Every structure is written in C-alpha cells, then in structure tokens.
Amino acid sequence: QLQLVESGGGLVQPGGSLRLSCNAPSGFTLNRYAIGWFRQVPGKEREGLASINIYGTPTNYADFVKGRFTISRDDANDTVYLQMNNLKPEDPAVYYCAGRHTSFRGSLSPDWYDSWGQGTQVTVSS
Asked: Which of 60, 75, 82, 116 has its CA 20 to 30 A from that of 110?
C-alpha cells in the first residue's frame, strides 16, 4: 500500500486559484501509478475530479470542473498537480489524491484506486 501526500490547500477568494500537489513519501515514487483527484464534504460522497495515467496523459475530467481544473504530471519532481482556477463557493472541501499501480488509464471512481492520501483542505471565502 502506498500512502500518498497532498499539499497546497488553503484559503482562497472566489475567482482565485490554487495548485494542489500529490507526492509519494520517501522510498516510493509515483512513476508507475495512475493518479486521480477527488474531493469530499461532510454528508456527501467523494467526488472524482480528474485523473491522469502513467504516461502523463489526462484521462478523465468531471463535467463540472472542465475548463477550470487541470491535472498534470511532472516526472522530474515526481509530482502530480491539480491546478484549480476560478474557484467557486461550491468548491470548498477536503481534496484527496489517489493512486492505482501500473495503469495506462484512469478513473473518476474511488473504488478503482489502491492508495490514498490524508487530504488537504480547500476553503473559498471572501
């Protein structure tokens, strides 16, 4: 089991931007893992946002984030990013990244993934 680490969350004003990062702890790499980004608020099911395969190709975007959120992979830093632009009042949540080993595809279904991080909080407020 791979324990992922999310970072980059925080407080942003409506219309602002954040870039979230997903990393592996020391001793592991994301090189062979497809990565997905998810979010969850209390009382709601976890929502899939975007996914990227082991080759660095984005594979899935949720309809409600298309044009605002972008997933990318930086192999030099062994990091997967979620760039979030034009944040809305409905975007606050705990954001998670998830991994599945050796996959040429991705998924927006939480059950598809092997490993998860602890999440990073995103707050949108004026």
From this structure: 75
Reported residue count of the chain is 126
- 57's CB contacts (< 8 A; 6+ apart) are none
* Distance from C-alpha of 45 to C-alpha of 120, rounded to nearest angstrom: 17
Distance between CA 56 and CA 41 in Å, rounded?
Answer: 28
CB atoms within 10 A of CB 61: 19
**Kind of pairing, strands 47-52 and 18-23?**
unpaired
* Plot region of 123 (φ>0 → left; ψ -120 to 50 → alpha; else → beta): beta
Give tens-digit pLDDT for 27-52. 888 988 999 999 999 999 999 999 99
3-state DSSP percent of the chain in helix, strand and coil, to 5: 5, 45, 50
More confident residue, 26 or 41: 41
Of 17, 12, 24, give the one whose Cα is nearest residue 77: 24
